Amino acid sequence: MENVRSRGEELKAGLQALVTKFDFIREVRAEGLMLGVHLSVEGAPFVTEAAKRGLLINCTHDHILRLLPPFIVTRAQIREFLKLFSAVLASASEKPATAETSTPVSRPAKKYATAR
Q1: Domain membership flag for residue 53
Q2: Could you tell me if residue 101 is inside a domain?
Q3: Domain count within the chain
Q4: Angle at 84 between CA 82 and CA 87, to 5 degrees
Q5: What pLDDT band is residue 103 in, cutting at 50, 70 and 90?
Q6: 86 or 99: whose pLDDT is higher?
Q7: Residue 61 belongs to a domain with what CATH number?
Q8: Could you give the angle at the alpha carbon of 71 between the alpha carbons of 55 and 19, nearest 5°?
């Protein structure tokens, strides 16, 4: 449990440092190694970009990036993650899609056949 507390504090501090760098980060929430990064933009593009770089994160409620590293994560892995995550935020933020600015996609109407 000591590793969970220590690495969680390191990760939270690193994410808090990113708040000053990226104005679309609203808040960082953490409890041990369960972390959430609340964004003011849609989170899906960041999940996609993270996957391209080998990071596994997910997005909940459209605007919260959820981070759940394993309890055995090392200090070096935290540093590497923060470096890659910063690059993800920088890359994906160049073209964020917000609900207010995205154009609606027209989808073909579904056709259903009824059998009698």
Answers
A1: yes
A2: no
A3: 1
A4: 110
A5: very low
A6: 86
A7: 3.90.1150.10
A8: 55
